[in-house]
Specification:
By secondary structure, the chain is of the alpha+beta class. It has helices spanning about 10-25, 80-95; strands at about 40-50, 50-60, 65-70, 100-105.
Length: about 110
């Protein structure tokens, strides 16, 4: 018959193991990720890449963690209508989304 280790089967070992298990599993509690922040905004910015400028409209909710949706408008007849089309597209997508945790970037 095999010899049993007396340290593993002692009552003090079980107490220490139990306390360490409680400490370990209580530290694994899920943190609250839906905290509000004060940085909600809607802004138009110009992004430059390889000497090409593109205007975007960014609508960010007052949350720290968001999903991002990038939307593109259809063809417009005149460049003068680009920002109106970008804002209209953003507003229409925002109205049909059933989520408040979505940052929408509309490309002009």
């Amino acid at each position: 018959m095999p010899h049993l280790n007396p340290v593993i089967y002692s009552p003090s070992f079980f107490k220490a193991f139990f306390l360490l298990s409680i400490i370990y599993f209580s530290s694994c509690a899920k943190e609250n990720t839906t905290q509000q922040s004060i940085d909600a905004y809607r802004v138009t910015q110009t992004i430059s890449y390889s000497n090409i400028d593109v205007d975007v409209v960014i609508d960010k909710p007052a949350l720290n963690e968001v999903d991002v949706l990038m939307v593109f408008h259809g063809t417009v007849l005149y460049d003068l209508n680009l920002m109106t089309a970008a804002n209209t597209t953003l507003d229409k997508f925002k109205s049909i989304l059933a989520r408040d945790d979505m940052m929408i970037v509309s490309v002009a």
